[in-house]
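User: Could you go from structure to sequence for me? I need the amino acid at each position, not a summary. Structure tokens:
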């Protein structure tokens, strides 16, 4: 169950012109953290009209051997810009671990990860955990080179393929739509997508054209929550999947890709 914590910043650095890496000292949380878990961070800028809304940020790594967790984020709005100015040694008020962990298992030998934007943090976490026992390919999409996580965040065994284009859905189609070659979607025995809605719809369409059978659990999608209560009370994060209202902050962030569109 998510609890409130006061955590000390262990490391905070700029990775690219738009991405920052924030490591927090949290030995207990570091032991339990899994991909898909988020921290709800209080961003206390006095000039921010939304300062009471905690920012949900996906974990990008856990380092239990040194008792630390790490977040990867882009300070693209006032609350996160305030967070970007915090220094090592300062404390942050967070609630976590929030959300359900990704169901990694040892049958996922060929793992295909597809992501864009801030959601890539959760995929980096999966790649780091899965690398020792699975073949992992990560496709990362961004509208700006500076939004792509640097390769050194990933184990060297990971195949890391990046595409810079403003149209993520079209890029996903260009990379995964089968032409004369077999699609990566046919190679994979597990697919994890962390993409905007339109790109998820496109991925679902391509998946249906590539795979005759598509078992539940084969393809998972991540749906992020906007700033809100984080525990299912406010409805801010509500999305409709196959005619049912779902709350990603408590039921997600992982949902079956079969629930999107078509
Ligand atoms: S953020 Fe409040 S219900 Fe999900």
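Assistant: Here is the amino acid at each position, in order:
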């Amino acid at each position: 169950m998510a609890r409130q914590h006061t955590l000390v910043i262990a490391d905070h650095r700029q990775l690219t012109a738009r991405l920052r890496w924030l490591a927090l000292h949290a030995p207990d949380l570091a032991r339990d953290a899994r991909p898909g878990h988020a921290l709800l961070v209080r961003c206390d800028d006095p000039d921010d009209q939304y300062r009471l809304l905690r920012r949900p940020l996906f974990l990008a790594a856990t380092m239990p051997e040194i008792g630390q967790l790490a977040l990867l984020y882009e300070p693209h709005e006032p609350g996160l810009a305030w967070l970007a100015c915090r220094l090592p040694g300062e404390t942050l008020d967070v609630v976590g671990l929030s959300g359900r962990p990704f169901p990694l298992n040892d049958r996922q030998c060929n793992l295909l990860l597809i992501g864009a934007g801030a959601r890539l943090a959760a995929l980096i976490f999966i790649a780091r955990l899965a690398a020792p026992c699975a073949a992992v390919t990560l496709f990362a999409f961004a509208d700006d080179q500076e939004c792509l996580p640097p390769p050194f965040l990933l184990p060297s065994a990971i195949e890391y393929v990046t595409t810079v284009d403003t149209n993520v859905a079209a890029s996903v189609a260009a990379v995964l739509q089968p032409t004369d070659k077999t699609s990566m979607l046919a190679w994979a025995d597990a697919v994890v997508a962390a993409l905007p809605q339109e790109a998820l719809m496109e991925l679902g369409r391509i998946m249906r054209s590539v795979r005759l059978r598509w078992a539940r659990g084969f393809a998972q999608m991540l749906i992020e929550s906007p700033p809100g209560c984080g525990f299912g009370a406010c409805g801010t994060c509500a999305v409709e999947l196959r005619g049912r209202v779902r709350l990603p902050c408590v039921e997600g962030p992982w949902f079956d890709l079969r629930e999107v569109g078509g």
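One structural detail worth keeping in mind: The chain has a mean pLDDT of 91.
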